[in-house]
Every structure is written in C-alpha cells, then in structure tokens.
Design goal:
about 325 residues, Leucine-rich repeat, LRR (right-handed beta-alpha superhelix), binds 2-acetamido-2-deoxy-beta-D-glucopyranose, signal, LRR_N_plant-typ, secreted, glycoprotein, Cell wall hydroxyproline-rich glycoprotein
C-alpha cells in the first residue's frame, strides 16, 4: 500500500512537472491555479480526488509513461490506403498533444488529406511504389509546445523526422521502435528530458542522430557507438558518463559531445575512426585526463576541439 501511494504521489508530481514544462498555451497556468486551490482546501473531496486520478491517467497510459490521445476517424473520411489512415490518427493525436502553435503551422492539419498538411511529406514506399505513405515530417523552427504522443509510432514509413527548434517536452515514445525506416532524427533544440532515448538504438536505418540542446541526462549507452551512424550530436545536454572503449567503433564523420559532463580518457580506439571521422568536438566536458597518441592517426579530421577540458598531455603535432 505504502509503495503504491508513493508511486501515485510521484506520478502526480511528474504530471505537474509536465504541465509546467509544456508552458505555451496557458493550460499550465490554469492547472497550477487549480492545484493551488485544491491544496489550500482542508481535505480533498471525492470528486477532486477523481479529477486528479483521471488527469493522471491522461498523462500515463502505459507502462513506459508514454501518453496517447484518443482520436476517432469520422466515417465520412476515405483514405487512399490504410497507411494514410494510420497517419491521420498519428497526426491528429499529435495535434491534440500540442498546447501552443504560435505560427499556426498545424492550422491546416484538418481532414483526411494528410499529404497536404504543412510539414508532412508523402512519397511512394520504396518497397511498394504503388503505395503512397508519409515519408517525412519537417516542423523545424515552428516554435510549437507540446509532446510526442505514442501514436507517432503509426507513422511507420517515416524516413525523416525533423522537429528542431520547438518546445516539445517529455520523452521519446517507445513506439518509435516501429519506425524502422527512420534515417534522420533531429530533435535538437527542444525541451526533451529524462534518460537517453534507448529506442533509437533499435532503429536499423538511422544515420543522422541529433538530440543536441535538450535536457537529457544520465549516461549514453555504449551501443550508440556500435551503430552505423554518420552523425551524432548529443552536445548541450546533461549527460554524465565515461567515454567507453568502443567509442572508436563508430563510423561517424561528425560527432559533437560538447557541453555535457564526460569523464575519463579519450579512448585509444579513437585511432580506428581515421577512415571516416572529419569532425569531433568534445569541448567543455570536464574530461580530466589523457589524450591517446592514436589521435595522430586521424588524418582527415578538419575540426578537432577538446578545449576547456583540463586534459593532461600534448596533442600530436598533426592535430594541434
Ligand atoms: C475514446 O473516445 C471514445 C469515443 O469518443 C470513447 O468511447 C472512449 O471511452 C475514449 N477512450 C478513452 C480512453 O478516453
Ligand atoms: C490557422 O490556419 C488555418 C488554416 O490554414 C486557418 O483556417 C485559421 O484561421 C488559422 N488560425 C489563425 C488563428 O490564424
Ligand atoms: C581497432 O579495431 C581493431 C579491430 O576491431 C581492434 O583490434 C583494435 O584494438 C582497435 N584499436 C584500438 C586502438 O582500439
């Protein structure tokens, strides 16, 4: 009993934080006022308790804490194929999860013709060119506040998902594991928080991975460096970890890890990145140790920045 009431208290707290974080539309203010009103009462009435419980359910629908929305498709709508019907559900759920859209970017997300929605791009499915599917989302610089509902996993043919420079918060839904063609994921400059979004490790086609300028914390799983990625941007988050020995397995041409808190050595395996690496930026991380001599193997690196790190040792002449 004690455990479960503690859990409820924690969930409520988390829900309150979510409200605060998605602060665009005034909804957060109203909720905060309401909460203050409730807590100033001597006790909570049954109805108030029920209200809080329902709100909690709204925010936490599954075991991962992913939240979904409740979209129904009008009978009068017809779709060229079931993939586009699923896309309609996903995009309408997303629209419900948006609390502020100051540029009215999603204003035309109405009706069944999802391929004409602003920021939504359709294309023939590579494996079945007769089938038109949603292949790209580009909402860069839309300044939208909201979160990513789990229904986005219905966009299972997406190759490109770009939402940089918005105010999305919360976490990356586990349903993203269904987006198995995803090639470019750009979540940069938003307000995502919590641990590293492990779901990306299972995306087989991912090449461009950009989560810079968010609030992710904890460690970065070493599996990231075994993935066949071309670009990794994790800078300006709150990650804290040792750079693992398998770092050099990464075939990236660009990796930027600046402005986090990494410890330990730059691993010697970095020498194995010489065929692919062009740009590596580790600045301002609190790395407090050695630079391995293998760094001299990095022949095609044009940008190498480890400044503000208290590193001991000297850079090989080739790099310095
Ligand atoms: C979703 O909407 C339908 C129809 O409006 C309703 O019957 C159902 O209870 C809703 N489900 C949830 C989980 O809110
Ligand atoms: C937002 O865009 C839609 C469709 O483009 C338009 O009908 C609506 O009036 C716009 N709303 C505002 C507040 O500008
Ligand atoms: C580079 O890779 C090879 C083979 O994967 C491995 O044996 C070697 O130890 C690596 N070099 C470094 C410096 O880690």
């Amino acid at each position: 009993m004690k455990d479960s009431s503690l859990r409820i208290a924690n969930l409520l707290l988390a829900a309150a934080v979510l409200f605060l974080c998605c602060d665009g539309g005034g909804g957060g203010g109203a909720a905060a006022e309401e909460a203050a009103e409730l807590s100033s009462d001597v006790g909570l009435s049954e109805a108030e308790v029920g209200l809080i419980r329902r709100r909690q359910l709204l925010y936490y629908r599954d075991g991962f804490g992913d939240r979904g929305e409740n979209v129904t498709v009008p009978d009068s709508f017809t779709f060229p194929n079931p993939r586009l019907r699923d896309a309609y559900i996903a995009l309408q759920a997303w629209k419900l999860a948006i609390v502020s859209d100051p540029k009215n970017v999603t204003g035309d997300w109405v009706g069944p013709d999802v391929c004409n929605y602003k920021g939504v791009f359709c294309a023939p499915l590579p494996s079945d060119p007769c089938l038109t599917v949603v292949a790209g989302i580009d909402l860069n610089h839309a300044d939208i506040a909201g979160f990513l509902p789990e229904e986005l996993g219905l966009l299972c043919d997406l190759a490109i998902f770009h939402i940089n420079s918005n105010r999305f918060c919360g976490t990356i839904p586990h349903s993203f594991s269904r987006i198995h063609l995803l090639f470019e994921l750009d979540l940069s400059n938003n307000r995502f928080a919590g641990g590293f979004p492990d779901v990306v490790l299972g995306l087989p086609e991912l090449k461009y991975f950009d989560i810079r300028f968010n609030e992710f914390d904890g460690s970065i799983p070493e599996e990231l460096f075994d993935k066949n990625l071309d670009a990794i941007f994790v800078n300006n988050n709150r990650f804290v970890f040792d750079i693992p020995d398998n770092f050099g397995n990464s075939p990236v041409s660009v990796i930027v890890m600046a402005n986090n808190r990494f410890h330990g050595c730059v691993p010697a395996s970095i020498g194995n990145m010489s065929d692919t690496l062009n740009e590596i930026i580790l600045l301002n991380n609190g790395l407090r140790s050695c630079i391995p001599k293998e760094i001299g193997l990095l022949k095609s690196v044009t940008v190498f920045d480890v400044s503000f790190n208290d590193l001991v040792g000297t850079l090989p002449e080739e790099i310095a």
